[in-house]
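Notes from the 1:1 (GR / supervisor)

We went over the backlog. Supervisor wanted to see one worked example end to end before approving the batch request, so GR pasted a single chain during the call. The sequence is below; no edits were made to it. Supervisor asked that the structure be written out right there so they could see what the output format looks like.
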Amino acid sequence: MNDGPAMTFRQTLRPADRPAADGTFWYGPDRSILHRSGRVLAGPPAAAVFAELPPEELRNLLVDSLRWWMAPAGQDDDRPTAGADDAVLGACRALVRHSYGRWLSNGGPPPSGRQARAFQDGVLRELLAASSQPA
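Structure output shown during the call:
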């Protein structure tokens, strides 16, 4: 479910219902975040309800997410790019989860397109070095 001050409300109950252009990788990392950090309002602990993904499967989804963020045009120059802050945040979160086994929260100032791309390229290389996926 996506909801926020600058977002149109959307609820998708199954990955097959989400447009492929919006990225279908979100469910696995979200499940991992809930498993590790979910706060329970009622019922069993989040870790008992949301299973952690196997490391290789999660790493593959993080690679998919980085490639999705890196796909838009305009990320190879020095101008501020819409979404560059989210793209770098996603790369930071992927790197910390991969390297240290924990998730970071959101936040930070937006980088330029060139800065975002350079950082994302480095994170993608590190994740791919730990998997069997081609660059």
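Supervisor's comment: The chain is about 50% helix and 5% strand.
Batch request approved.
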